[in-house]
Amino acid sequence: MSDKAGYRNIYLSDDGTSLINKSNVSEKVRLTDCLAFLKKFKSIDLISLNIEGEEYKNLNRLIEGGLIKRIKFLQTQFHDFVPAAKAKRSKILKNILKSHTVRYSYPFVWESFEKKEKS
User: Fold this and answer.
1) Degrees (nearest 5) of the Cα angle 118, 33, 49?
2) Any residues with CB less than 8 A from the CB of 39 and at least 6 apart, and which?
3) Phi and psi of 57, rounded to 5°?
4) 27 assigned to some structural domain
5) Which of 2, 5, 116, 119 could bridge across to 33 with cysteines, CB 3.0–4.6 Å?
């Protein structure tokens, strides 16, 4: 999934395969808009994002589209190699915390959120 549909190169690098960090080996992949895909579901029990820097765009898309409120449990790994990562993470967290509470937070390692009873 992505913040928009289309085709992009994904750069292969063991456990760091990414759309952002370029390597010598790549493949063209088709991406689906996360908002369009997830609109099909009335509720979502769990989303876990470890997508090598793309979490910022995807989470912003889910927040702006209002779908973040459909997710009961959200787990993500924010990556610090993205420019302005700390500021981007802070802005996203501010918005997530409107509808979710923190279950655990190890910044730039793993963070987990649970939907508030009424949001």
Assistant:
1) 60
2) 65, 67
3) -65, -45
4) no
5) 5
59 domain residue, yes or no: yes
pLDDT at 10 over 80: no
Its domain, for residue 45, covers 33-115
Q: What is the pLDDT of residues 36-95, one digit of tens each?
A: 999 999 999 999 999 889 999 999 999 999 999 999 999 999 999 999 999 999 999 999
Nearest Cα to 114, choosing from 106, 67, 60, 99? 99
CB atoms within 10 A of CB 115: 20
- Which residue is associated with the tokens 């302005």? 84
